[in-house]
Amino acid sequence: MARRYQVVQLVIALLLAVGLQTTMAQVPQHNPAMLPSQRGLAHLLFTSRISALNPQVSVACFTDYIAHSNAISEAYGQDYKGCLLEASEERKHIDESSAVERREIVDASEAVCASLRACNKLNTTLELFNCHTKIGTENTKSSYSLSGNASEFATILQERYRLIDLHHQQCGQRAERRYVTDTAGNYNYLQGCLDGRLQPRLHLTTPSTVAATSSTTTTTTEAPPPPSSTTTPTPPPTVVYDELTTTQQTQNIQDQVAQILNLLN
Ligand SMILES: *[C@@H]1O[C@H](CO)[C@@H](O)[C@H](O)[C@H]1NC(C)=O
Ligand SMILES: *[C@@H]1O[C@H](CO)[C@@H](O)[C@H](O)[C@H]1NC(C)=O
């Protein structure tokens, strides 16, 4: 129990240290079900054999996991930004490439407006009425043609925008798949590392062979040692109570770790 409490303190100090340095990276908005929950991670840490046997190794596993987790989120953010940029470039290109059609429609509509304005400039009212009577019939034809042409162009452009949206969606899904795959792999690594099947990819400055007690003293600058009550022998009746509170504390700390992990993601 005492050792587990030390582990907990170590880990919290570590998570806080890592967490403070972490930039809030973008992650997929809906967390797919196959990704580990933060609660699950915290639970994994507290139930792993390595955590109990060798706190330093489990901390190394976790440091490594968090570093990779951050890199994965960072990569996802970059991918996502790339998708947005690509789509915005393609949209810009649509406007550039349809400049001729746009000019055609604008010119045709301005010709209609100019002919109407010309009638309004006539001196006598009768002339003005007659002008609009004549021009209106002609304008009806050109307005109809203009509307038909504009509608045709619009259909083509809508299709192109639809394709861009589709590409953007596919781009986002690729980024998300990569995030999910990498995160799942990272989680598998963490499980393997905590199970002792895999070596931590990062190495601590102090050799991992150093006893757990000395390792805790090296980290006491960040994590204060557990209360001295752990060294005092406890009489049988209070053991149950002590274990209860320790379990409760561990649960609280698990919750805190889960919260810190939530901040990281
Ligand atoms: C327009 O009307 C004015 C008076 O309101 C007159 O002086 C002028 O000669 C007219 N011009 C034309 C082109 O009919
Ligand atoms: C509409 O398109 C046709 C065929 O491209 C063209 O001949 C006509 O001038 C256009 N009409 C307008 C109002 O631009």
TrEMBL record:
<dbReference type="Pfam" id="PF05267">
    <property type="entry name" value="DUF725"/>
</dbReference>
<feature type="region of interest" description="Disordered">
    <location>
        <begin position="208"/>
        <end position="237"/>
    </location>
</feature>
<dbReference type="InterPro" id="IPR007931">
    <property type="entry name" value="TsetseEP"/>
</dbReference>
<feature type="compositionally biased region" description="Pro residues">
    <location>
        <begin position="223"/>
        <end position="237"/>
    </location>
</feature>
<keyword id="KW-0732">Signal</keyword>
<feature type="compositionally biased region" description="Low complexity">
    <location>
        <begin position="208"/>
        <end position="222"/>
    </location>
</feature>
<feature type="domain" description="Protein TsetseEP">
    <location>
        <begin position="58"/>
        <end position="177"/>
    </location>
</feature>
<feature type="signal peptide">
    <location>
        <begin position="1"/>
        <end position="25"/>
    </location>
</feature>
<protein>
    <recommendedName>
        <fullName>Protein TsetseEP domain-containing protein</fullName>
    </recommendedName>
</protein>
